[in-house]
Task: structure prediction
Amino acid sequence: MASAVPPASSEAFLDWFRQKTETTWSTYPAPTLEYFTKLGIWGCKWEPGTRWLGGLEEEHIAEIERLWALSFPPDYRLFLLRLHAVDRPLRCTAQAEAQPYQQILRDAPAFYNWLKDSAVLRTRMDDVVTGLIFDVEESDLWRPSWGPRPTTAESRAQQVRELVAAAPPLIPIFGHRYLLAEPCQAGNPVLSIVQSDIIVYGADLRSYLLTECEDFLPIDQAQARREADTLIQARFAEYTAIPFWGDLLAQ
Result:
């Protein structure tokens, strides 16, 4: 049964979000390899009994910002203060190294834990650059706004690194979803980035959370998706104006 969702990325919304997700996870079936095999799918599932850790202290957030040279927008800062991350990983399918056609289960982070997931967070940040470089070489990617295309692979890679370094920073939050860090204000979009395939996955953090966890929330999913799509379309001109990332959205 659908329930009323608090209307803003506020403490009330995050408390509602925590209570509803934890209620669903408390009775969630344990993910098994047989489940994925039976459905013939690859993917990830949540562990039963998953709970939110309960947030970071302000001094922890300040130290994380210093270490990563980031400034967290107010709505994400509030998310870190109230929720931060969950207490157990996702269970995901993967290929067995010794037997390429055999599925195995492995752990993967859910919402990133800034105190424990440093290596994964660094990989996610690096993935943005390496994915673009891959498409530059394998898919002939080169946007006119990037200037003349360099003549060597090494110089092209270097130019992509410089362009990304000069672009508004991205904050990894879950999988290949990234929150735009600048301007440092509430309401920035969440982007899904796989190589040069970039889409707006959430018009803001609240909209993103409702989309990412829609299966665990008592909401009308069809209506929520319509509202999310309408909001993204209404703001799309703003998104395409974002330096560097907006030009890739406009492809």
